[in-house]
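A note from the maintainers: we've had questions about how concatenated examples are separated. There is no special marker in the raw files; a new sequence line simply starts the next protein. For clarity in this README we add a label.
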Amino acid sequence: MGVEGCTKCIKYLLFVFNFIFWLAGGIILGVALWLRHDSQTTNILYLQLGDKQAPNTFYVGIYILIAVGAVMMFVGFLGCYGAIQESQCLLGTFFTCLVILFACEVAAGIWGFVNKDQIAKDVKQFYDQAFQQALMAESETNNGKAVVKTFHETLDCCGPDNTIGVITPLWREDLCPKKDSFLKNLIEPSNCHKKIDELFSGKLYLIGIAAIVVAVIMIFEMILSMVLCCGIRNSSVY
């Protein structure tokens, strides 16, 4: 005997929320894959300065998002099927998965909040080291120049601060994008440190919005799944 009345409405409401949850998982997976293969981040984070690799903290977060998106799609499907079949076992499993996912999301959010400034700071330090090497390099064998040019071309900037960004083209014009001119740098100074901050803060902003939306959906789903479980149990008694 199936559920009736308000419990039946909750059943279909849970199905709709799970479908949205499944779609949200697909969106997170898509955004994570886009961030993983975005030309700006890949050009910078795949760089190597001598034996030193560019900081990969950002990619750690991206791989976590890929895993979360894939798991969310599986859990969303499990919830949809469990709601339609009115299975207490599937709904109980779904609820347990949601609790684990919610805990992982909170932990990932705390990790991201703690490391959000460190990511940009590490990349800026890596850039500064490459910039100093590029200025002092006498030969093309030192890859500091190649690393710096990749930063400049990818982010459309020149130098770690405005002052150096203006002066650098005077003696190392080959380090900056060709479209940059001395007059342009005087009028619109391009600061690579600022561009790096904008790059990573923009990415983290997108991730934060997606995480908040998913967290709200998960809370509603946990409540609805427990109410539906109780409704199924009570309906089986009569």
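[label: protein 2]
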Amino acid sequence: VKIFAPNTEQRDVVNHLKGSPTEEKRNVLVESARLARGNIQDLAELKAAEFDAVIFPGGFGVAKNLCSWAVDGKDCTVNEHVNSTLQAFHSAKKPIGLCCISPVLAAKVFPGCEVTVGQDKNVDGRFPDAETASAIAELGCKHVCKNVNESHVDKANKIVTTCAFMCKAPLHEIFDGIGTMVQEVLKLA
């Protein structure tokens, strides 16, 4: 297992204690290195031939730094290295795992694919970003409704997705969904 991140500036920096942006500037690779405890490489160096699969975590950083979904929605652009990584694994018929908001990357890069970001309606207030499912459909992809503890497998494209924090759920349910995503990716590898 190796960890990669793009070597680019963050769109913005948020003080998560206050919930507001700061004037700071930070680099995605440097911040990712902090989380990965330094064991990380520039995404530009990733070679799909050296790996059996790729998994993209989610989080708002994906929507702001791996693509511009947070600002542009379905009209977003995808970071060139993220795009080329997805294309390389897809072309090699190797599995791609995506959780939380990152399934929008596949929806943008692979028209016609199937993904999940949870539900397409805000069921009991648990899916506040349910409109993301509509945007995915507008991109020509199929959104498949799944519960937070489940994942969806697009067998034709070898894409496995789960909603994770797109659902307001207890951490153990989110953990279970991510676990099913990882298990399904490994089965396809």
